[in-house]
Write a structure and sequence with these properties.
Number of helices: 6
Largest sheet: 5 strands, mixed, barrel
Strand content: 15-25%
Helix content: 25-40%
Order of helices and strands: HEEEEHEEHEHEHEH
Structural class: alpha/beta
Strand order of the largest sheet: 5-8-7-6-9
Number of strands: 9
Distance between the termini: 29 Å
Radius of gyration: 17 Å
Length: about 270
């Protein structure tokens, strides 16, 4: 809690006013920044106890500004378990944003399609998840000031915001699904046998992020919603090699649809 307070004190010392909404931008999904009226940019390296993003495609900075008249704080670059960070470190910025005053959390990510009915470029509004990172940001002594020792996870994704996203997708004729996300350790992409296993477990899509942040948000009673962009098809019987460049290209092509949903949601919150 002391580390959170020190990070909070530094951010507030930069003249930051209370943000209403927190946003985490995923791989290849940084275009939303163009729609932010930016008032202040703070590199992660300047914030006490903040991790630093080691992925080239992730800018390591917090942006403060507004979208549609709503005060927002945007993580331009997130952290992953495969970078060597613990789940606690990954969740740290979410805890700081909550203490700054955000009332909702919007998260995006790039994922692989496991469900055979899903297509590359589609959007998935997460309904549930499976944590196969085998790590949890709440492990260890509970921080009672933030939340309970045993938070309920029966509904990790906020129903009200999901309803709004579904309505927006229908109104804008955007192809979408509601599905179960499985968090994989990475950084290796999965084998054919692993894809079969994940499908058998009930997963619709797979990625290497998001779940630690969602667990931390739920612990703090912070409503969150996640939209994934499907960047590759994980069909174990017709699997072809995929590169990061291809994943980013697909994410950027589909990104305007995600931006439309997020801006529409922010406007309605």
């Amino acid at each position: 809690m002391q580390e959170i307070q020190e990070a909070l004190d530094y951010i507030l010392s930069q003249g930051i006013e209370k943000p209403e909404i927190g946003i985490v931008l995923g791989t290849g999904l940084g275009g939303l920044v163009e729609y932010v009226d930016i008032e202040k940019t703070i590199p992660y390296s300047e914030i006490p106890h903040f991790p630093n993003s080691t992925i080239e495609t992730h800018h390591g900075q917090l942006l403060f500004g507004s979208i549609k008249g709503k005060k927002v704080v945007v993580m331009q670059g997130r952290f992953h378990y495969y970078e060597g960070y613990t789940a606690k470190q990954i969740a740290f910025p979410i805890r700081v944003m909550k203490c700054l005053g955000i009332e909702q959390l919007l998260i995006s990510n790039a994922s692989g399609a496991i469900n055979p009915d899903y297509n590359k470029g589609d959007l998935v509004i997460l309904d549930d998840h499976i944590n196969l990172q085998f790590e949890n940001p709440l492990r260890g002594t509970n921080i009672d000031e933030l939340g309970p020792r045993f938070p309920d996870m029966s509904c990790p994704y906020d129903k009200a915001m999901r309803v709004i996203l579904v309505d927006l997708a229908k109104q804008n004729r955007i192809a979408y699904h509601e599905g179960v996300y499985v968090a994989w350790q990475g950084p290796c992409l999965e084998t054919r046998a692993e894809y079969r296993m994940l499908r058998a477990l009930g997963a619709d899509l797979v990625g290497m992020s998001t779940v630690p942040e969602v667990i931390a948000a739920k612990h703090m009673n912070l409503p969150c919603v996640v939209v994934s962009v499907l960047t590759d098809v994980c069909d174990p019987d017709n699997l072809t090699p995929v590169t990061l460049e291809e994943i980013i290209a697909v994410a950027q092509e589909a990104e305007p649809k995600l931006i439309k949903l997020f801006i529409g949601l922010i406007e309605k919150l």
